Amino acid sequence: MATGKRESLTAADWTEAALTALARGGLAAVAVEPLAKDLGATKGSFYWHFADRNELLVATLALWERRDTDRVIGAIGESGDATARLRRLLRLAFTSVPDDGTAGAVGTVELALQASAAHPLVAPALRRVTERRLGFLTRLYTELGLSPARARDRGLLAYTAFLGHAQLAHATPGLLPGGRAFTTHVDQMTETLMRLGD
């Protein structure tokens, strides 16, 4: 998105660029000079919008939460048939992780953040996002009739399946099936996680 015009860049432009860099290269990739170069801007443009890198990190983590958690939960909704909502959520999560390991795909930010999970800005964001997602999954499984404890266990299973799927797509994308076989794979995972029996 190289614009070369400082005045045309917004804080949102910097934050989007930082999120892309984070997904591609982890926390270390969120650095002012490389981002400025990618955007065709100067460091002065960055400091027009942010006091420092930490302020950009906070904005970037907030954008990730809005995009990959708030928006997803909002799309699924809080009312209606729990079976259909859970199936839609699982399919959305698994199909949002493409079989080519694309850097901007859902799940890549989580994976990139794992190496920096103890960072004082990353740790609370990861915890908050994970708790919100698990809470939403637990509510859906509870609405399907599971006890709170079993719903929490099933939600944890679904979430760890998503993270494992994302890791595989990112690290060894050639191991995932492609094309129609990918769709079948997602359908099988979804239906397995929809089963409520032991």
Notable traits:
elongated; 9 helices; mainly alpha; about 200 residues; Tetracycline Repressor, domain 2; about 0% strand
Furnish the topology, listing elements before pairings.
Blueprint (H helix, E strand, L loop, with lengths): L10 H15 L6 H8 L3 H7 L3 H24 L5 H14 L12 H7 L7 H22 L4 H24 L7 H16 L4
Give a verbal description of the structure:
The chain is mainly alpha-helical. It has one domain: Tetracycline Repressor, domain 2 (Orthogonal Bundle), CATH 1.10.357.10. 69% of the residues lie in helices and 0% in strands. The chain contains nine helices and no strands. Helix 1 packs across helix 4, helix 1 packs across helix 6 and helix 5 packs antiparallel against helix 7. The longest helix is centred in the N-terminal third of the chain and has 24 residues. The protein is elongated, with a radius of gyration of 19 Å. The termini are far apart. The N terminus is likely disordered.
Write a brief caption for the model.
Helix content is 69%, strand content 0%.
CATH class: Mainly Alpha
CATH topology: Tetracycline Repressor, domain 2
Shape: elongated
Portion in beta strands: under 5%
The helix/strand order is HHHHHHHHH
